[in-house]
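Is this the right way to post structure tokens for a design question? Let me know if I should format differently. Anyway, here goes:
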């Protein structure tokens, strides 16, 4: 019998403890395949080992167990750009990785995996990422970032270097091969071993603004020689070129948004040419926040075919026929797309996103067109489908046209309620990022209790093309705020949620938008939760790290010429407008958004007697939660109120108290 209980009070099979048991497949996920041994490698955060990044492997040729490569004491993570990524590579049974604690690059001969040796000098001020190894295992070409003690973003130097793998004197092992620009990324060596391609760009641009594609010739007489360095694409287009790849036949591909969307292009006749006759009106790749993203790859069996994303699936793009054919899969999106040839069989390797289950890392037979092996799955217990709320993408009207959100309605087969459910609006970070509409156990925690979720892809989000992405140019704190409020109000107007029970949560840039909504649109939401939020734009401009230190010039305006705009859009200066409860979280070691951003906001909230709570912690990690929140917050006596009148945080004893771990 279905029982009637108020929304938000339904008993659920999803416990708070279960949310922190498995780190799952997240942004640190990086896949490599070693053709010489038919072995696939990938990275994963291991919560029970302090949140370190471990490298795992499995042989695809024969049945084998998953093997963990790195012993305790090593952590495969880079700090380049603070966000890292691209922290290892594998070639001919040799593995090279960046170690988080000391920043050094190490080599492991996988025939003797306990022998781990450094290949660069000891210097904690130097960082390395995005490795490319030549065929003879003589050199690694990679991104190098050097800091100085107590330096500023202007003091940080980024360049491309070659690490000499045969040099015994490590002080002589690192050689600069490209410098002078602010940023370098994606170095790749062609199959003939005689050509280097990479991406470079300068402030105030970020990878999704304006990048350039470079090439240089390589020779190996008297050591590695780099010559004829030249820009081959993007010099005057004002386009975002990302993810260059060589096919087996030497053809060069890249994604670029010169036609309005990140679509696949081939370098020929002295420029990048769109592979398909017509532009696919979706972004076929995402923004390059970290190194190592892979949203497409040329096939091994036929270099004229590309494994990539279409509008709705993973697909095979035929570059000669200019056709794209979807592959049958049960998934909605795909990350870390790679191919692996084992014997005559070619596999697609990818992180698979679904609306009904956590991300999986799978091997997909391209000939049989089906998943043949799950290499990494969630450790969380599976949920009965009757409790899983699948999202619906909803387009809603905005001041600039239309915005998009994924709506997850309440779902629990044992309970129902009268009236309309409360809504929890969720905001992605970035702000140049997006929500995917994938399964999230944290969301099921809420929907199975009778709380609706809406993930908002406000103007400025990726996936919908350059024009939509650029809506935030000079408009951060306006377009995003208007869109998030419009999404919540639209869902109420069409009868999906209760207008009087709207709350909002976001992290980092999403935390800024959360607090901006509470500050500048106080009539919309009843409470807010901000994780490591931006609260003072001027301070962020002054305190930011090199990668993002000019980001606000595009999102807000020139500084100091438009200093007043920075002031006017900063929630901390107008916190007296906040009339509802708020809770803030911040890591003390966060270099992307310094903790002073939250501390200053809380002081203002306290002085204005606004109900609030603040929790800070020190994990040794940067932006975001990389360790288990339920462990870190266990026993904290803050609260969440699931009462019918306010539905969220209350700073009072006359409510139902539970530990803070249950907020997420």
């Amino acid at each position: 019998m279905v029982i009637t209980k108020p929304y938000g009070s339904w008993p659920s099979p999803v416990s708070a403890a279960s949310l922190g048991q498995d780190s799952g497949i997240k942004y640190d996920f990086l896949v490599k395949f070693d053709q010489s041994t038919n072995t696939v490698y990938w990275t994963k955060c291991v919560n029970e080992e302090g949140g370190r990044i471990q490298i795992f492997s499995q042989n695809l040729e024969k049945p084998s167990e998953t093997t963990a490569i790195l012993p305790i004491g090593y952590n495969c993570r880079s700090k380049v750009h603070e966000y890292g990524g691209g922290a290892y590579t594998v070639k001919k049974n040799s593995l090279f990785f960046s170690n988080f604690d000391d920043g050094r690059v190490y080599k492991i001969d996988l025939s003797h995996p306990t022998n781990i040796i450094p290949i660069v000098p000891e210097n904690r001020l130097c960082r390395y990422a995005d490795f490319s190894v030549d065929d003879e295992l003589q050199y690694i070409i990679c991104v190098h970032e050097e800091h100085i003690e107590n330096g500023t973003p202007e003091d940080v130097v980024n360049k491309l270097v070659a690490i000499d793998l045969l040099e015994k004197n490590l002080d002589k092992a690192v050689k600069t091969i490209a410098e002078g620009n602010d940023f370098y990324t994606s170095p790749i060596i062609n199959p003939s071993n005689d050509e280097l391609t990479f991406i470079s760009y300068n402030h105030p641009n970020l990878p999704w603004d304006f990048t350039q594609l470079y090439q240089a010739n390589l020779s190996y007489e008297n050591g590695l020689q780099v010559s004829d360095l030249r820009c081959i694409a993007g010099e005057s287009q004002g386009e975002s070129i990302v993810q260059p790849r060589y096919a087996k036949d030497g053809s060069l591909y890249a994604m670029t948004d010169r036609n309005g969307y990140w679509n696949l292009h081939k370098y020929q006749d002295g420029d990048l040419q769109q592979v398909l006759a017509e532009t696919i009106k979706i972004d076929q790749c995402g923004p390059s926040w970290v190194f190592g993203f892979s949203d497409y790859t040329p096939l091994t069996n036929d270099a004229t075919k590309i494994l990539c994303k279409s509008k709705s699936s993973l697909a095979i793009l035929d570059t000669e026929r200019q056709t794209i054919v979807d592959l049958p899969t049960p998934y909605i999106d795909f990350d870390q797309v790679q191919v692996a040839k084992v014997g005559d069989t070619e596999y697609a390797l990818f992180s698979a996103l679904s609306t009904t289950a956590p991300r999986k890392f799978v091997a997909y037979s391209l000939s049989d067109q089906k998943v043949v092996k799950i290499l990494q799955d969630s450790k969380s217990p599976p949920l009965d489908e009757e409790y899983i709320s699948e999202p619906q993408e909803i387009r809603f009207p905005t001041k600039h046209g239309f915005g998009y959100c994924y709506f997850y309605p309440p779902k629990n087969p044992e309970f129902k309620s009268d009236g309309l459910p409360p809504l929890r609006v969720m905001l992605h970070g970035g702000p140049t990022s997006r929500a995917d509409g994938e399964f999230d156990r944290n969301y099921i925690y809420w929907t199975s209790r009778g709380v609706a979720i809406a993930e908002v892809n406000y103007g400025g989000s990726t996936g919908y093309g350059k024009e939509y992405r650029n809506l935030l140019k000079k408009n951060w704190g306006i377009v995003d705020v208007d869109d998030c409020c419009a999404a919540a109000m639209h869902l109420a107007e069409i009868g999906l949620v209760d207008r009087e029970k709207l709350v909002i949560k976001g992290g980092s840039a999403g935390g800024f938008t959360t607090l901006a909504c509470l500050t500048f649109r106080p009539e919309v939401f009843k409470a807010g939760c901000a994780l490591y939020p931006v609260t003072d734009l001027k301070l962020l401009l002054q305190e930011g790290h090199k990668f993002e230190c000019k980001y606000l010039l595009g999102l807000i305006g020139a500084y100091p010429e438009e200093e007043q705009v920075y002031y006017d859009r900063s929630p901390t200066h107008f916190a007296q407008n906040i009339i509802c409860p708020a809770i803030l979280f911040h890591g003390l070691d966060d270099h992307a958004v310094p903790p002073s951003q939250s501390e200053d906001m809380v002081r203002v909230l306290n002085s204005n007697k606004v109900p609030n709570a603040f929790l800070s912690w020190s994990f040794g990690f940067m932006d975001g939660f990389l360790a288990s929140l339920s462990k870190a917050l266990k026993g904290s006596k803050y609260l969440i109120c699931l009462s019918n009148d306010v539905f969220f945080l209350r700073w009072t004893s006359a409510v139902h108290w539970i530990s803070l771990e249950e907020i997420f």
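Format looks fine. Someone answered above. Worth noting: The chain is about 10% helix and 35% strand. The CA atoms of residues 24 and 116 lie 27 Å apart.
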